[in-house]
Amino acid sequence: MGSRSSHAAVIPDGDSIRRETGFSQASLLRLHHRFRALDRNKKGYLSRMDLQQIGALAVNPLGDRIIESFFPDGQRVDFPGFVRVLAHFRPVEDEDTETQDPKKPEPLNSRRNKLHYAFQLYDLDRDGKISRHEMLQVLRLMVGVQVTEEQLENIADRTVQEADEDGDGAVSFVEFTKSLEKMDVEQKMSIRILK
Amino acid sequence: MEGAELAGKILSTWLTLVLGFILLPSVFGVSLGISEIYMKILVKTLEGLEAIVEDEVTQRFSSEELVSWNLLTRTNVNFQYISLRLTMVWVLGVIVRYCVLLPLRVTLAFIGISLLVIGTTLVGQLPDSSLKNWLSELVHLTCCRICVRALSGTIHYHNKQYRPQKGGICVANHTSPIDVLILTTDGCYAMVGQVHGGLMGIIQRAMVKACPHVWFERSEMKDRHLVTKRLKEHIADKKKLPILIFPEGTCINNTSVMMFKKGSFEIGGTIHPVAIKYNPQFGDAFWNSSKYNMVSYLLRMMTSWAIVCDVWYMPPMTREEGEDAVQFANRVKSAIAIQGGLTELPWDGGLKRAKVKDIFKEEQQKNYSKMIVGNGSLS
Question: Would you call B368 and A143 a contact, using CB atoms and an 8 Å cutoff?
């Protein structure tokens, strides 16, 4: 009965991954299929190069930052790690917020965790703060050669100034969250097919 | 002895039936309507099945995940054991596909290919004349029709008035080697490609005897000027059949159209675009050449329910003043994508072999810069 297709029993720790990420059985199988398709040499994990083969990421100016977010420590990402990152983009359903058990850890697709994902795209050295220099670097990635150095520096300066409340010249996670409080992050950072 | 006699009788009856119902009508291009009846039965059965599946399953899955299952486990990744009833139906499907349909199709394919080789060799012996051309067309069309029936193919041709004319270049999106079969069933084309060894080589050599195709040695393919020159010579002769080219250069999975390589568009001449779209409900025609080799691909095709596709012929296009080959290629690509209901992707189908050009990244960067600089601030 389809020896080549993913079967629920084939995913190691499938149950615990499901509990941690909140993905449905079908979504998890689909992601496992995708993971195995990306893992060309059947290593059992993904390296940066595997992800760089994806066309859409290669033409994305922030592609490298996104790929980097899959490798919090080391050069390899296994299937649970892969799924954990994607879980941030799971759409938020009402049932998630209602049945919030205070003892359970926050679901990976909560507003706070979504914002944290976005935050670490900017925080290059992972020190918990976006400095002016880091902001400039990420902006430079995004616009390439389309904007002059001077203009970009101005923009980076103003951005950091507007968000920085405690005057340390950098944007902390709390300040980042505050500056985006009016944005509908739950909707913008969700991918519908990842139910 | 008796067993052998019986087997002989069954075989001869079988072959007579095949001859009467499938081969002869193919020669005359007539359809007895057997395929239509088969397709109707198939559709009704699958609809009925959908009802059964939904009944048994609504509690266990959300309905959008198990939309309609066509009894091919290869197309349903999430297959799990759902119920005994469904499994029995699936087993029945397997029996029908492998024991009834497969032998029939293999027989037809065998007959079709042998006829093609023998027919074209025979026609090739004749001196050049209009009779030879007519006969070679007849042989080609008959054998292609047989081969299409070998795959239980149902093809709808739209806008036949725009069918590619002699001296033009026919351009289409590529999903599998079956594309060639589908197009040649409705008209004769001159094919372009590499010389292969083995069975393909035999077929190629035979076909060239009956009408001029353009086959290249592997070493010649690298020399783009040589290729362009030979193709130009071919289309300059208005009596020669239109050339069939797949500008994507590789098989794509029929949901999108990838970058058209500009080589085909530099030759000049009139381009006749054709859009081909397969209906995935009855069988997935995409050939993933890194996953399956040719033989296992053909086996998969022959054990699917059917290959259903639509072919749209489109009005001819020529390169306009001041348009370079790349822009022309993109224009044709958009037209094909819109007609076939496919999305367009700007990058190279051969991405697995080469990195994406920076030009696509730059376009994205331009968009971001407009956002950032345009209104003066980020938030």
Answer: yes
Nearest to B356 among A59, A139, A180 (CB): A59
- List the single best residue of B86, B360, B364, B377 to mutate versus A (max A Cβ within 10 A): B364
- Give the separation between CA A113 and CA A102, rounded to whole angstroms: 16
User: Which member of A33, A142, A158 has the closest CB to residue B368?
Assistant: A142
Q: What percent of chain A has pLDDT over 90?
A: 32
Tokens of A20: 């941690």
* pLDDT tens-digit series, residues B22-35: 777 766 666 666 67
pLDDT for residue A2 = 36
What angle separates helix B358-374 from helix A149-163, to the nearest 10 degrees?
60
Judged by CB atoms within 8 Å, which residues 39-78 of A form the interface with B?
Answer: 53, 55, 58-61
Please tell me whether residue A84 adopts helix, strand or coil conformation.
helix
Evaluate the CA torsion angle B89, B95, B100, B104 in order and state its sign: positive
Chain A residues near residue B375 by CB distance under 8 angstroms: none
Chain A residues in contact with B79 by the CB 8 A cut-off are: 1-2, 5
User: How far, in Å, CA of B229 to CA of A36, rounded?
Assistant: 44
Q: How far apart are CA B180 and CA B183, in angstroms?
A: 5
Q: B250-260 b/e with 16+ CB inside 10 Å = b?
A: bbbebeebbbb
In terms of Cα–Cα distance, which of B23, B49, B219 is closest to B104?
A: B23
The tens digit of pLDDT for each residue in A110-144 reads: 999 999 999 999 998 889 999 999 999 998 888 88
pTM of model > 0.90:
no
Closest-CA distance, A3 to chain B, in angstroms, reads 9
DSSP B169-195: EEEE--S-THHHHHHHTTS--EEEEE-
**Which amino acid is residue B115, in one-letter code?**
L
To test the contact with chain B by mutation, choose from A33, A146, A153 the residue with the greatest count of B C-beta atoms within 10 A, namely A146
| Rounded CA separation B89/B73 (Å) | 12
Interchain pair A142, B61: CB under 8 A: no
User: From the CA of B213, how many Å to the nearest CA of chain A?
Assistant: 35
Identify the DSSP state of A100: -
